[in-house]
Design a protein that fits this description.
elongated; seven-stranded parallel sheet
C-alpha cells in the first residue's frame, strides 16, 4: 500500500487540528477502492469540544452515517460525549434500536448525522485516533479455513495485532473486543483484525493510525505476493465473450425475468473484461461463486451469492428456501428485500450487475470486481475460500438497522428502474426530454449527431452516444451500448429532426431527401430494431414521437418538414395498432412554436415575427392561451405519456401549442 501522506495538505503547525487530520486520513483511505468501497470503513478521533457554557467536554468524533470516507468533511464527524459512551459499555445487553437511540442522545450537537454503528467500539479502544478499512488483502487472509487464516495472520503480524472473531457491528462487537482486549493487547499493539471484516489501526494521532494502516496492509500484500501471486488476466487461453450485439434480446429477456421476480423494473449492466472472462470460464465457478461475499457488509448490495447461469426462477426458489431456513433468527419482521439476484455470473454473458438504479448496479459491480481476485487467490493458492456461514450473512441482510432504513426510505421517482432511449438529445426538445426522464429516475441513453451529447448529463444513469440516426449500423451499435449499460429499453423518445425552409418551387432534392432521412426513415429503422427490446420490457414499452403542429396545420415553406412529420405520424399510428399485443403503447406529440430549439435561429425568429407584424416577444405568445411553449414544457408532457398516468393510452396525438385555431 502506498503511503500518500502529504504534510502540506494540513496546516503547517506542529499540532494540526485533530479533526482536520482525521478528515484527511479518512479521505486517504476512502479514496482507495481496494480499502473501502461505497460507504464502508470508519474512523474516529477523541478530542475535547467546548459546550455552550464554554466548558470543554471529552468527545469522540466518529464518522457519521451516510458519509463516504473518500469525500468526508468535518461536518461528517459526529461529536458525542465520551463519558456517556463508556457508561453504555457497562451494560450487559443493548438492542440495536436502543443503542442508536442512546447514541443519538449522546450527541453534543443534534445537527450532526447519526453516528456509526461502530461508535461504541471506537469509544472503547484506548487510543486517541482510529482508522478502519475493509482492505481486500485483509479479507483475503481472513476468509480462509480457520487454521489457515490463523497461521497466515500469525506469520505476518506476530502479536502486533489483536485478532477478533466476526461479530456484527454494534454493541455486541464492542463488548466482545472489550472482553478480548486484555488477553491479547499490550503496549505495542498497533492494530486489530476483525475476521471476515477488516482492519483497525490506532495511534495518538490520525497520522500515526494511518501510517500503521499502511504498514500492516503492506505486510499483508507482500506475504500474499509471495504465497498467492495474482493471476495473470487476459491470457490467450481465456475464451472471448460474445459481443452484446449478438445478445440483445437474450439480455433484455433476462432483465425482464429478473425484474418480474424483483417486483419492479431493474437496471442491469454487463461486464466482460479479461478478469470476468477468466472467472466465468472456471470449471468451479458455480461452487466458488456460492461461497459468499468478502465481508457481511457486502451482502446488502450483492445478496449472499450471485446467480450462476440464467435460471431466475431457480435462484428465486433457492432464495426463498434460504429465507425460510433462517427466518427465526430475524430480530425484526422480514420486509423490503426481494428474491432477485444482484450479481449474475454466466459463461456466455460474463458478469451482470443489477440494481434498482444504475448507481445501485454500479455499486454491485464494483464490489464483485473486487471479489473475483480474492476468491481466485484464496481458492488457487491458500487452501480454499471460506466465507461466513449463511446464518451470519442472513443476520446482516436482515439487520434491524438496515430494515429500519428500508422502512423509512421515501418512494423512488416514478420512472426508477426504467431505461429510456432519446434521439436528438444534445439540444432542444430532445435534450429537455432526456433530462426530464433522468430527473424522474430513468436511466437514459441519449443519441445525437453532435459529440456534445456525451456531456448533456453526468452520473451512472446517463449514457450519451454520438450517433448518426440515418445510419442503420450506427443505430444498432447505439442500441447495443444501451443494453450493455442498462440491460434493455423501456422508453423511446424520437426527437431528432431536420428542418429545411424553402417554397416547393425552390425545394432541392437533397433538402427533401435529408429531411425524410432524418425525420422519417431513421425512425422507421429505429422502430424495426428496437421493437424486440420494447416487447421484452418488464413494464411494457412506451414510445413517444415528437411530430409537429405542421401535421394538422402545415405552413408555407415547410413542405418537406410537414410531409415527413405527417408520414411519421402515420407510421406511429400503424405501430400503435401492431404493437398493442406486445404491451407497447405509441403516442405522438405535436409541438408548435418551441423557439428554444436548434430549428429556430434568432434570425429566423426575427424574420417570422416581422412577417407577422409583431415583436419577437409577441410572436412567441401568438397562441390562443398567450403562453410560451418551451422545450421543458414539451418534455413534461412527454414524461407524463411515458408514465403510468397514460397506461391506457396509445395512438394518441397530443398538441402542445398553446391552442391553435387552425388545429382546433
Amino acid at each position: 500500500m502506498e503511503d500518500r501522506w502529504d504534510s502540506n495538505a494540513l496546516e503547517t503547525s506542529s499540532h494540526p487540528d485533530p479533526i482536520a487530520e482525521c478528515v484527511y486520513c479518512s479521505r486517504l483511505i476512502g479514496s482507495d477502492a481496494s480499502l473501502v468501497l461505497h460507504g464502508g470503513g470508519n474512523s474516529s478521533v477523541k478530542a475535547p469540544r467546548p459546550d455552550v457554557t464554554g466548558r470543554h467536554v471529552d468527545a469522540l468524533f466518529v464518522k457519521g452515517s451516510g458519509w463516504d470516507m473518500g469525500s468526508i468533511e468535518v461536518a461528517g464527524f459526529t461529536p458525542l460525549r465520551l463519558a456517556r459512551l463508556h457508561d453504555l459499555l457497562e451494560l450487559d445487553a443493548l438492542s440495536d434500536v436502543d443503542m442508536m437511540r442512546e447514541l443519538s442522545a449522546a450527541k453534543l450537537d443534534p445537527a450532526f448525522p447519526a453516528p456509526s454503528v461502530e461508535t461504541l467500539l471506537h469509544a472503547y479502544l484506548p487510543h486517541r485516533a482510529v482508522q478502519h478499512s475493509h482492505a481486500d488483502v485483509i479479507v483475503n487472509l481472513t476468509n480462509l479455513a480457520a487454521g489457515a487464516s490463523a497461521d497466515a495472520l500469525g506469520e505476518i503480524y506476530g502479536n502486533d495485532v489483536v485478532v477478533v472473531p466476526y461479530v456484527m457491528p454494534g454493541f455486541d462487537l464492542a463488548r466482545l473486543v472489550r472482553a478480548t482486549w486484555p488477553e491479547q493487547a499490550h503496549p505495542a499493539t498497533v492494530g486489530m483484525v476483525l475476521m471476515n471484516h477488516g482492519l483497525f489501526t490506532f495511534g495518538d494521532t490520525s497520522e500515526e493510525a494511518y501510517r500503521r494502516h499502511v504498514d500492516l496492509i503492506t505486510r499483508a500484500e507482500q506475504w500474499l505476493d509471495r504465497h498467492a501471486p495474482q493471476p495473470e488476466f487476459g491470457l490467450a487461453e481465456t475464451p472471448p465473450l460474445p459481443a452484446t450485439s449478438t445478445l440483445l434480446t437474450d439480455l433484455a429477456e433476462l432483465r425482464r425475468a429478473i425484474s418480474e421476480v424483483a417486483g419492479t423494473p431493474m437496471v442491469m449492466a454487463r461486464h466482460t473484461g479479461a478478469a470476468v472472462a477468466r472467472f466465468v470460464s472456471r470449471p468451479d465457478v458455480a461452487s466458488l461463486a456460492d461461497r459468499g461475499p468478502l465481508t457481511p457488509d457486502h451482502v446488502i448490495r450483492t445478496k449472499r451469492a450471485p446467480m450462476v447461469g440464467t435460471d431466475v426462477v431457480a435462484y428465486a426458489a433457492d432464495y426463498h428456501n434460504y429465507v425460510d431456513a433462517h427466518r427465526d433468527r430475524a430480530r425484526t419482521p422480514v420486509v423490503g428485500l426481494d428474491p432477485a439476484p444482484r450479481v449474475v455470473v454466466d459463461r456466455r454473458l460474463g458478469m451482470l450487475a443489477i440494481g434498482r438504479t444504475a448507481k445501485d448496479a454500479g455499486i454491485a459491480a464494483d464490489i464483485y470486481h473486487h471479489t473475483i481476485p480474492v476468491l481466485e487467490r484464496a481458492e488457487d493458492h491458500l487452501g480454499g475460500y471460506v466465507a461466513l456461514s449463511a446464518g451470519h450473512l442472513w443476520d446482516m441482510e436482515y439487520w434491524v438497522l438496515e430494515q429500519a432504513k428500508l422502512a423509512l426510505a421515501s418512494a423512488p421517482p416514478e420512472l426508477t428502474g426504467m431505461v429510456a432511449l432519446v434521439t436528438g438529445a444534445a439540444s432542444g426538445i430532445g435534450r429537455a426530454c432526456a433530462l426530464e426522464l433522468l430527473a424522474r429516475g430513468a436511466a437514459v441513453v441519449g443519441l445525437d449527431l453532435a459529440e456534445s451529447v456525451i456531456a448533456v448529463a453526468s452520473g451512472p444513469g446517463w449514457l450519451g452516444v454520438p450517433t448518426d440516426v440515418t445510419d442503420p449500423s450506427a443505430q444498432r451499435a447505439a442500441l447495443a451500448a444501451a443494453v450493455e449499460h442498462f440491460g434493455g429499453i423501456d422508453i423511446v423518445v424520437a426527437s431528432a429532426a431536420f428542418f429545411a425552409t424553402a417554397p416547393i418551387a425552390e425545394l432541392t432534392a437533397d433538402a427533401w431527401r435529408t429531411t425524410m432521412a432524418v425525420n422519417l426513415d431513421a425512425v422507421a429503422t429505429l422502430f424495426t430494431e428496437v421493437h424486440p427490446l420494447l416487447a421484452r420490457s418488464p413494464v411494457g414499452g412506451r414510445v413517444v414521437v415528437i411530430a409537429s403542429k405542421n401535421v394538422p396545420a402545415p405552413g408555407k415553406g415547410a413542405a418537406a418538414y410537414s410531409a415527413s412529420k405527417a408520414a411519421l405520424t402515420q407510421l406511429c399510428r400503424v405501430a400503435a395498432l401492431e404493437w398493442a399485443d406486445d404491451r407497447i403503447r405509441v403516442n405522438v406529440v405535436h409541438p408548435d412554436a418551441v423557439f428554444d430549439t436548434g430549428l429556430w435561429s434568432p434570425e429566423l425568429l426575427a424574420e417570422r415575427a416581422a412577417e407577422a407584424g409583431l415583436t419577437v416577444d409577441a410572436y412567441k405568445l401568438r397562441n390562443l392561451l398567450h403562453t410560451e411553449v418551451t422545450s421543458k414544457l414539451v418534455a413534461g408532457v412527454v414524461r407524463s405519456l411515458c408514465s403510468d398516468t397514460f397506461a391506457a393510452t396509445t395512438g394518441a396525438q397530443v398538441p402542445i401549442d398553446g391552442g391553435n385555431d387552425r388545429v382546433i
